[in-house]
Request: fold
Amino acid sequence: MAGAIGLSGVGMRGKRELVSDLSAATGLTWLLEHTPRRPVLMILNYHRIGDPNATEYDPGLFSCTAGEFDWQIAYLKRRYRMTTLDEVLGLLSGEGLLTEPRVLITFDDGYIDNYQLAYPVLRRHGVQGVFFLPTGFVGTPRVPWWDEIAYMVKRSRRTRFHLDYPQPQDFDLDVGGIATSIRNILRLYKQPAMRDATRFVEQLERACDSARPGNDAQRCFLDWNEAREMQQGGMAFGSHTHNHEILSKLPVQGQLEELRVSRETLQKELGRNIDTLAYPVGARDTFSEETVSALRQAKYRAAFSFYGGFNAAGSIAPFDVRRCGVDQQSRKRLRLQTAIGSHAGNMWF
Ligand SMILES: [Zn+2]
Reply:
């Protein structure tokens, strides 16, 4: 975890960690933790749990290790009231009242480690996690494009290579390091000029002289039996669309289709009403007013974004419920983040 950080070359992330160290050392974090707090709904979002160095896929998706997750849940439970999806829906419909800080734990994408590593921790602590599943991925051997790219780069037979599309760029794995190179290649893929995914992946395959994941590759996603077992154990589920498409990029009909198919699939497989969605990617520009009316039409009651911020009592927008990501921050920083959030109501540090 990011604990000891040198002074040179620290980015925004490093600066936040330094401030967190300072705040803990001076007792400010402790003071914030022990003074009266505001009613605020703090929703944390995770993707993968485990060791980012041990995966053959994208290490950037790992929120924390299983040990850290256990510490985080124990800490949050000690300091805050942990809440459930039903309670949040109650707050949104005005049935419940927010009188103190509450914390909701959520996961996006439905990776297999959510079942193998996160679920046992949550069950042991008696805390509900809400898992947003892209239904087209559940129970399939599918490897998403970001993991496919990471897989090929990690198995590259060349340390230096060149990509032409969507724009020329050179890569040197020895100089840049594997993790940074993967991040830069993913960034290239996400550029608006990149319109032909097959062309992009094929050129990377040639450039690295490595193959895409085959049938013997590790399974990425949990299956329906595992989801049902988690539901039995108190976990809750929502939609993350069917194909993990950015909704605002689709025509209205396409958005409606993604919302309907995923909701119907989840309801059929889990035998429960599905009322909520987490927007894929979740930035402000990934959903629009059109998306919100499509959500209403498809009978969703709430949707969760992912660009930061907490939800202060009385100002929670049902189709833009704010969430903050857990991204390998230190314990000190998580303590400070939630302590500030529970005072300021809508601030993420
Ligand atoms: Zn996602």
In short: Residues 1-9 have pLDDT under 50 and may be disordered. Residues 108-109, 240, 244, 280 surround zinc ion (CB under 6 Å). Residues 278 and 311 are 15 Å apart (CA to CA). The longest helix spans residues 252-270.
